[in-house]
Amino acid sequence: MKKSERMQVLVNLSQRKEDEVAKALAKDQARLQHDQLKLQELKDYAAQYDQERNLLGLSPYLTTNYQHFVNRLQQAIQQQEQQVKRSQQQVSMAMKRWQNARAKTKGMDWLKDKSINEELNFENKQEQKQIDEFANRAFFERMRS
């Protein structure tokens, strides 16, 4: 088996690993989008709830209940903001893993191409050597005759 063929096996393995890392990255990006959407929905709900409260005249009892609800809603928003930050960190780490995997695949591919070029150069030199030997034999045969 030629060196370039062995290198192709390594390129294929590296490509599979890169594909796996890319799938994980896509999954993390989808999770981040979901978390961001959920955060935006919570913020929109809080803003809508605040607008409705301003339109209604609330009794002291309802104002207290409202304030408890708003506090819980703010806590939910803060928790979701933390989740978004964690998801962003996951995406960042997954992106770095993908970049490293991509660089490795490119490096393996470059080495394979280099091996192919070396093999072609060697084959060309061998072919040229055979042509030269044939030409020399033909020349010496003509000189003898």
From TrEMBL:
Belongs to the FliJ family. It comes from Marinomonas ostreistagni. The lineage of its organism: Bacteria, Pseudomonadati, Pseudomonadota, Gammaproteobacteria, Oceanospirillales. Signal peptide: none annotated. It comes from the Bacteria. PANTHER family: FLAGELLAR FLIJ PROTEIN (PTHR38786). This is Flagellar FliJ protein. It holds the Pfam family FliJ. It is a peripheral membrane protein. Transmembrane segments: none annotated.
